[in-house]
Every structure is written in C-alpha cells, then in structure tokens.
Write a structure and sequence with these properties.
By secondary structure, this protein is of the alpha/beta class. The protein has three domains: about 170 residues, Rossmann fold (3-Layer(aba) Sandwich); about 130 residues, Sulfate adenylyltransferase, CATH 3.10.400.10; about 210 residues, HUPs (Rossmann fold, 3-Layer(aba) Sandwich). Helix content is about 35%, strand content about 15%. The strands form four sheets. Strands 6, 7, 8, 9, 10 and 11 form a six-stranded mixed sheet that branches. It has a five-stranded parallel sheet with strand order 2-3-1-4-5, with helices on both faces. The longest helix has 20 residues. The radius of gyration is 25 Å and the shape is globular.
C-alpha cells in the first residue's frame, strides 16, 4: 500500500491536533502504520532553537514536510498538525510530496479567544505577545484544500466524518470499518438464526467497529491464517478467531441473528466452512484440556462457521446506560476532553488497590484513563458485572480526578486465552481510541495455564508501532507493610510476608464469611459494595 500525508493547517487552538489524533486511531484501525507530527512537539525536538520569523517558520514547515515524506515513502501515513501559516511553503511541500492531502481547520479569532483557557489570544490582541499568527502575524488560508472544516460551526465528529469520507473518495484510504447499524425492523423479514450471548457480543462489536479491521465474521482464509500466524490473511495482527459458529452450514444470503426474542444483527453470509477445533484449541489456548473454560466453550460450539459482513441492530445495552458507549462515542468523548493520549485498563475482577496503583502510575504520563471493564460472559464464580461496575463507580467518586477518567463497558466475552487474548484486548482498546494499554501479571490467564508474564513477552513479537497502541507492562503490585505503601517487585526490597495480596478465591471466602477486606487490599467504599452483595446473595 502506498503511503500518504495528511496535512492539517489552521490557527492555534482551531482543533488540528484533536482531529489528527482521531484520524490516527481511525487509520490504525484499518491496519496502517501512522505517525503524527504535531507542530508543538516538532518545535521541541526537530526544530528546537528556531524562532518565529517568517524564515524560521518556513524552515520548520520544510522539516516537517521532509519527515512526513520519509514516513509516506516507507508505506506509512504521516499526519502533520501545524499552523503552517504561509501558503507558499505549504504549496512547496505539496509539490514535493506524493499523496499530499490538505485539511484546513477554520475558526474565527473571536471564537479562538473565547475558548482559549491560557489567554494567549487576549494577550496577543493587547499587544503583549508578538508574532502571533492570526493577530499580529498573517495566516494565509489554503485556496484549494482537499477538505475545509469549520470547528466553530461543526462538531468534532462532523468534521472528522467529512475528512475520512474525502480520504476514501480520493482513493488514499480504503473504505474501512466504522459503526454499521440499521433499523431492527429490517430483520423481521429475513431468515432467523438464534444465537447465544457470545455470538451476540461478537456480532455487535463487529457492527460497532470494535474489532476492526474485521468488518464481519471471519472466512476460512483468515481463520486458518490466525491459527497459524496470529495474523489475518492480509498480514494484520489478529490473534483470536471471531466466528459465527453453527451446527450446520447455511446458504449464502442475508440472515438475522436473534437472542432473547429480539433481533440483534444482520449477517450477509458469504459462505460456510468447517472449523478445526483441535488445532484451534492448541493455537489459541495453548491446551486442549476441557477443564480450560475457553476450550470447553469451543468444544460446546458447532463445527461449522458462517462468514460475512455484520450490521448491528442496536447500540450497547449491558444494563449501564451511562457507561454503554460505542467505540465512536468513546473516541468522541476523548476528543471533547482534549485528551491526546488515553490509556486503557482491562479487568474482569473487582477493582483493588493494585489496580488503582497501576492506573495512577499510567496517568502520570498520559492525558486520560479509560476504565474498560469486561461485562460480557465470564466463567461461573467470577464476580458479576453489575457488582464490578458499582465498585468502579465508588472508586471514581472519591479517588480519581473526574476530568481525567472515563468509565465505559466492554461488551466482549472472556476467552481466558492468556497472551493471545492480551493482544486481542489491546487491539480492541486501540479501536476505542486508546493510545496506551496496561498489561499486568497473568493477563487473561486462568488456572495456571500460562506462565506469569507470558502476556508481556507476546508483545515483543511485533514491530514498533505495528499494533497501533503502546503497551505498558507492569509487574505484580501490592501493599507492602514495611514500605507502608503500594509497590511492585521492581521497587520493593521486602519479603512476601510483608505484602498484602489476596487471590480472587480468598476474597470470595472472606466476603462469604462476613470478614472485612483489609484497607491495604481495597478501598473501604469498594469493600462495602462487595460486602453488601455477599450478604444479599446469602
């Protein structure tokens, strides 16, 4: 695939960086390597020492153009977000750059001054700041940009949608997976296939774009490639088959998926193929032991699979309306908060102090935290999703800054596939807009089938930037009585008998016995939620 350059130009504060970050997530979700060249960051590094004269500004733009061409020349996508006020030097970069796509982000100085929390425009208008583009220095708008958006009159999503549509029309960007939803009434005249919660979860996530670059249930070639290589046939990383399993094949054509008496999705069936359960169990789970919940679920499924594109018939509805957000809605929320970076956190267990510690360490270096608990099907004995959600709400109410966290549900079901699922979880979070993802000890493990840090090592198999998300690997964390605080095996010199750490089994036993969970293990507010639930179940 040929590389190309998307060049955002516009006044300071118009929204170039926000749109650039949204576009980065979108293009990476389609399997392309993307580099963002932000004007402020470039001045800190590549153009350090340059001033704001016209000559220095032109030199800065030429340097950004050169770096962007290198990215595009290697088949990647460069997204430049810089004021680049002078038309002549922008046109010079255009002439030197194959696949140049210019986006003008318009916004009036009056509106920029109104929304400017730093007050830079006000100071420039008072003459306190010199060489300020749009006030005391000229800005020459493009005459014929590929797209012109107006951040004063349009929402971020409206502008973003127009940019993506024009990139697709221009042929630079292949049509990709975005939200695909339709009226449920369309399903009532189609052949009906009743499915369970796992198939429902996969179908809806496919329709919402959460499993991009997949637009539908896998065909045979992708299925076999994932088993053999951990990649789709196209070469894009993907580690777990996403299949519509049936007991028998169906003919090609449209079919409606129903669950609990309601249509949930439409599948344009392209064909059917037989799966290879033995090979799949070993490739995905690393075992064929029926005691493994993932292997057991696989064996209980049909031996045929239907391939085809999916259209979702409803939005997320897991019982938490405030937090049931599609990937598009999460990306929009990220943009509205002004977060350029966002770290995702996955859990199927109640939140405890070690989780909180990892999340806050990550927040020291990123703009926002997406708490993204899995609320789909888990194995018997796991704490129910509604309890876990209430635990998160209790924690966020008192222990996190409100402007730096977002709680949203992840409707996926738990495979318990260890390192394979760690990569799968990272790809899903990338599609929700995360730039970083936390991977801790025994991620997605169960019952000792995977060694403690296999989920860390699996990411070493991918080239830098290949997954489109940065992995934050954390060691085991705990409260150390000797340190009198949270620590990890990297930072604590004390023996294990000084560490306060409880297994899930121990937590359940203490709750059943009415024993208070220690404050060093979890916050009292979280412990109260768990205790009330345990009492109610007795």
């Amino acid at each position: 695939m040929s590389g190309f350059v998307v060049w955002f130009t516009g006044l300071s504060g118009a929204g170039k960086s926000t749109l650039a970050e949204l576009l980065k997530v979108e293009i990476e979700g389609r399997g392309r390597h993307v580099e963002v060249l932000d004007g402020d960051e470039v001045r800190t590094h590549l153009s350090k020492g340059l001033g704001f004269s016209k000559e220095d500004r032109d030199t800065n733009i030429r340097r950004i153009g050169y770096a962007a061409r290198l990215v595009a020349r290697s088949g990647g996508v460069a997204i430049a977000a810089a004021i680049s006020p002078y038309r002549e030097v922008r046109d010079e970069v255009r002439a030197q750059t194959p696949g140049f796509f210019e986006v003008h982000v318009r916004c009036s100085v009056e509106e920029l001054a109104r929304r400017d929390v730093k007050g830079l425009y006000a100071k420039a208008l008072r003459g306190e700041i010199g060489n300020f583009t749009g006030v005391s220095d000229p800005y020459e708008a493009p005459l014929k940009p590929e797209v012109a958006v107006d951040s004063e009159a349009e929402s971020v999503e409206e502008s973003f949608t127009r940019i993506v549509a024009q990139l697709e029309r221009s042929g630079l960007l292949s049509p990709g997976v975005r939200e695909s939803r339709a009226d449920p009434e369309l399903a009532r005249n189609l052949p009906r296939l009743d499915v369970g919660p796992r198939e429902t979860s996969d179908a809806l996530m496919l329709g919402w774009g959460a499993l991009a670059p997949l637009a539908g249930f896998m065909g045979s070639s992708d299925y076999l490639s994932v088993l053999a290589e951990g990649r789709l046939k196209s070469g894009q990383p993907f580690t777990i088959p996403v299949l519509l399993r049936t007991k028998q094949p169906l003919k090609a054509g449209r079919v409606a998926l129903w669950t609990a008496g309601e249509p949930v999705a439409i599948v344009d069936v392209e064909g059917a193929f037989q799966t290879s359960p033995d090979e799949e169990a070993l490739a995905v789970y690393g075992t064929d032991d029926l005691a493994h919940p993932g292997v057991r679920a696989l064996r209980e499924s049909g031996g045929w699979a239907l391939a085809g594109a999916v259209t979702a018939l409803r939005r997320p509805d897991t019982g938490f309306p405030e937090h049931d957000l599609t990937p598009l809605e999460v990306r929009r929320a990220k943009a509205e908060r002004g977060w350029r970076t966002m770290v995702g956190f996955q859990t199927r267990n109640p939140v405890h102090r070690a989780h909180e510690y990892l999340q806050k360490v990550a927040l020291e270096s990123v703009d926002g935290l997406l708490l993204h608990p899995l609320v789909g099907e888990t194995q018997p004995g796991d704490i129910p999703a509604d309890v876990r959600m209430r635990c998160y709400e209790a924690l966020l109410a008192d222990y996190f800054p409100a402007g730096r966290t977002l709680l949203a549900t992840n409707p996926a079901w738990m495979r318990y596939a260890g390192p394979k699922e760690a990569v799968f979880h990272a790809l899903v979070r990338r599609n929700y807009g995360c730039t970083h993802f936390i991977v801790g000890r025994d991620h997605a493990g169960v019952g000792g089938y995977y060694d403690t840090y296999a989920a860390h090592r699996v990411f070493d198999e991918y080239a830098p930037g290949e997954l489109g998300i940065e992995i934050l690997k954390f060691e085991h964390a705990f409260y150390c009585r000797a340190c009198a605080g949270m620590a990890s095996v990297r930072t604590c010199p004390h023996p294990a008998d000084q560490h306060e750490a409880l297994s899930g089994t121990a937590v359940r036993q203490m709750l059943a016995a009415g024993v208070d969970l220690p404050a060093e293990f979890t916050r009292p507010e979280v412990a109260q939620v768990l205790a009330r639930t345990a009492v109610a179940e007795q």
